[in-house]
Each structure stands twice: as structure tokens, then as C-alpha cells.
Amino acid sequence: MSDNITPDEAAGWGPRGTAGVSFAAGIAFDAVDVRLGGRAVLDKFTLTLTPGEVVCLLGESGSGKSTVLRVAAGIQPIQGGVVRINNEVVSSPTIQVPPDRRGIGLMFQDFALFPHLSVLHNVTFGLKRLGRSAAVTQARAALKRVGLEDRENDYPHMLSGGQQQRLALARTIAPRPGVIMLDEPFSSLDARLRESVRGETLAVLRETNATTIIVTHDPEEAMLLGDRIALLRKGRIAQIDTATAIYNRPVDLNAARFFSPLSEIETRVSDGFAQTPLGPVPVSGPGRGEKVVVALRPVGALDMALEGPGVPGRIIGKRDAIGVDIYEVKVSGLDRPIGIRQRSNAEILPGRDVFLTLNPDHVLVFPAD
Q1: Which of 2, 44, 201, 276 is the most exposed place for a label (fewest CB within 10 A)?
Q2: What top-level class would CATH report for the domain 263-367?
Q3: Is there a contact between 148 and 166 (Cβ–Cβ < 8 Å)?
């Protein structure tokens, strides 16, 4: 690598700060209903994005994530509510503004590249309104930003998976839309590529300044990419907030489960505390005698040491990760072992006695179902 090549260029992307800037648009969904085959896919779905904001839609398969994008893009009619872009109604039960008049760029999960068109023509396809010369100039600028300027005469099948993803991104940003939507954009990439492509894609999106919706089923990905995360459940938003807030203050036990594995302890409240074999946990809300679930994440809720003080436990399982060990710890009074992740320690092996200290500020407590 020569001294004048940046790490981003060496990884195959063009120089940062060169993506074309869009006029970001606000977009709002107000009580949107979508029914398919008699089933409610979106149920009074409500969400407002401010210009330039990046929001990640997070949820399980079938929660309605991709339908939100299709509705916004104008390729899915709605049976109730309205969708507005810059306060103009673009979707309602009686109004359906065509997709090409919405100023939205949509990047599909499978990239939906045109196999019979060259790399350059894939990008110019959506720029016909500019005229041939201007379209080629704008397309080449987008290709340069994603590091494909020297592949413009190739065809999609000649590109690697990562390069196809970058081509799809270039085609999405080239028209400089006010709103960009990406449907599971990294799901087809292997783990080795995903982290670098994800970071560079976010950099491109920030450079365009476009309002962005990213659909994902990966909580970590949502936390890394979004200004806010909207957790979908059965066609509605169960919770929307910043990554920090939604992780630390999940709206319910199911939301907490979605963001990480949990060790769950069913117990009752006594004198303002949930009593557990690991120690008391202060609670607010549930009264004396009420059933609650104390939920412990693998990181933060418990400290584990080879010597006391602390509640005694025994290591019954250990898996090695990169720089981190994943333990199962048996504690007297608990039916199931506790899951703990912490920095690798060769001395802590199955059969070893350890001592656990509870960190109440990092413990979640929810009413029992």
C-alpha cells in the first residue's frame, strides 16, 4: 500500500466526503393500515422521521418491516391512514402518488440489479430525467464513491457479493433522493465483510444527508447504525428511542429478550426489593408480594471472581470467543445456570468455584406474565 492511499480506498471504497448531497425530506406514517390476505401486516403504524435522520426498523420476520418500505416507496397500497413526505400526502386509501414522483431511493435485500445492463447503465437507469450527459456524470460520481469507477463496463455477475452491494448503493444514491430506504442491506454478506461494508455504507448515507430507514433483524446492527431504533411487533411500533435508551430501558421483557440473551429469575417483591439467590434487587412499581421477572444480561449484571466476597457458584460450561469467554454458572437456589460473558481468563475452567457480585443498576425487572 502506498503512503497516499487511505485505508478506505485500500478496502475498495472511494474517498470519503465525495458522495452527492441530497435535500433531505421529512417522512411521516400516520396510523397506516395494510392488510394482505386478510391479515393485518401494518396496524395503525405511526412513525415520523425528521430530515437527515437515520432510523433502523428492527423486528422479527413477519413484523412488517419490509412492508413499511414498500408503502413509503409507493409500491404497496394502504387501507387506512396516510403517508406524508414533506407534509404532502403521498399515500392514503384514495391517493397513491407514483413511486417515481416521491423522491425515494429503495435498495432491495437482493439488490435487484439488472443483469443485462452494465454497471454504469445500472446506475444511469434511474437518472433518465437528467439527460444522457448529466446522467453519466452523476452515475460516475456515485460509482467512484463506492470504488467501482473502473468497473463501469462490467456486468453484475462479474462482481463479488460485496461489489454488488456497493453497486446497489451507488444506484440508490445517484439520483440524490430526499429519502433512502435499505432492506436488510448486509444480510447476504459474510461476517468478514459485513462490519467494514456496514461502516462505509453508513458513512455514505451520512454524506448524502438523506433521511434514511434501514430494515434489519440484527439488534447490534441497529444499535450501530441508527440515530433511533424502532422495534416493530405485529405491525406496530412497540418502542422507539435511541440505542442506549432502548437497550437500558426496554419497554417489556420481550423487548429485552430481543436485544440480548437473558438469565431470568421469577420471584416476588418484598419491602421494595425483588429477592433472588444472587441478592436483592430494588424495584419501583410492583407492590409487596407481586410476581416479577429479574432479567440478567450476560454483560454488566454480574461480576465474577475467583475469590470472595460474593455469592458462590460453580462453572459448568465454558465457550471461547475472540477475547471473550462465555460461561454457564450454577448457583444454589436457581433451576437454570446463569450466562456470563467476560474477558478471557485461562484460570476459570468448568468445575471451578467462583463468586458472583450483583450490579443492581444493570439488572432489569419486569412484571411477571
Answers
A1: 2
A2: mainly beta
A3: yes
